[in-house]
TrEMBL record:
Residues 1-19 form the signal peptide. InterPro entries: Acid_phosphat_B-like (IPR005519), HAD-like_sf (IPR036412), HAD_sf (IPR023214), Lipo_e_P4 (IPR006423). Pfam families: Acid_phosphat_B (PF03767). This is 5'-nucleotidase. GO terms for cellular component: cell outer membrane. Coiled coil: none annotated. It comes from the Bacteria.
Length: 264
């Protein structure tokens, strides 16, 4: 009798467990879970971030020796996944079963609660000690201005003020904003997690930019400092065919875009 009751209980339990597992696996947002987990928990993410900013220190010192003395010196940094870590936002979205919601993003940035990317703050303080200013060029919008400044100032980032924060007010192309800075400053370094943070040559919506990267290979680690970001970026756009895709369709196309091999 006990055995029969045990079997009946298991019969009821397993379908519920299987349904829960299937629900989790079927959620397209879960495609991003391993990337967010890697950024939040791996020593490798921290090591790569420190490595990037260690290169930045060496390059900054080197580039100062040949800077135009008639201009002031600066570095340009992106904000998201370059100096501020937004992985808690990404984790929040995945736990909701979605990959991104604009309203949620606005709520997150208004909190000013993001932590620093490892090595970012110490590098920019190092630059400030050498009279090198920092400009923050980000595609956050004007609506996020107050929360962004609050976040940078709370963490003690240098030059976190109105004059040095250039947000997206007209176009996601950052080149016009870089040109504004270039009028009065030597731009010694550019730091970012997305190729369009460095040059207009990489500003290609939905286009494979690997050829442009190969052509500019000497700039990386020298003039361009790249931070690791497996969670999102322009690179993902080349995987998708069509507009107005659902999360499920995007998920399917990500799998279809993977390289594999065949055994002949």
């Amino acid at each position: 009798m006990k055995q029969m009751l045990r079997m009946a209980a298991l019969a009821c339990f397993f379908p519920l467990t299987l349904a829960a597992q299937q629900t989790t696996v079927a959620s397209p947002a879960n495609d991003y879970a391993i990337a967010v987990a890697w950024q939040q928990h791996s020593g490798e993410f921290r090591a790569l971030s420190f490595q990037a900013f260690n290169f930045a220190r060496l390059s900054l010192v080197n580039r100062l020796t040949s800077a135009d003395p008639a201009k002031k010196n600066c570095v340009i940094v992106d904000i998201d996944e370059t100096v501020l870590d937004n992985s808690p936002f990404q984790g929040h979205e995945i736990q909701k079963g979605i990959s991104y919601n604009l309203k949620d993003w606005g709520e997150w940035t208004s909190l000013g609660a993001a932590d620093t990317i490892p090595g970012a703050l110490s590098f920019l303080k190092f630059a400030a000690d050498k009279q090198v200013e920092t400009f923050y060029i980000s595609n956050r919008t004007a609506a996020e201005h107050a929360g962004t400044l609050k976040n940078l100032q709370r963490l003690g980032f240098p030059n976190a003020d109105e004059a040095h924060l250039l947000l997206n007010t007209a176009t996601s192309d950052k080149e016009p904003r870089r040109q504004i800075v270039l009028k009065d400053y030597n731009i010694l370094l550019l730091c970012g997690d997305n190729l369009s943070d460095f040059s207009n040559a990489f500003y290609r919506e939905g286009k494979d930019t690997r050829e442009q990267v190969d052509a500019a290979w000497q700039e990386f680690g020298n003039h361009f400092i790249v931070l690791p970001n497996p969670m999102y970026g322009d690179w993902e756009k080349i995987l998708y065919k069509g507009s107005g895709l659902t999360e499920e369709e995007r998920s399917a196309q990500r799998v279809q875009g993977l390289k594999g091999y065949e055994i002949k």
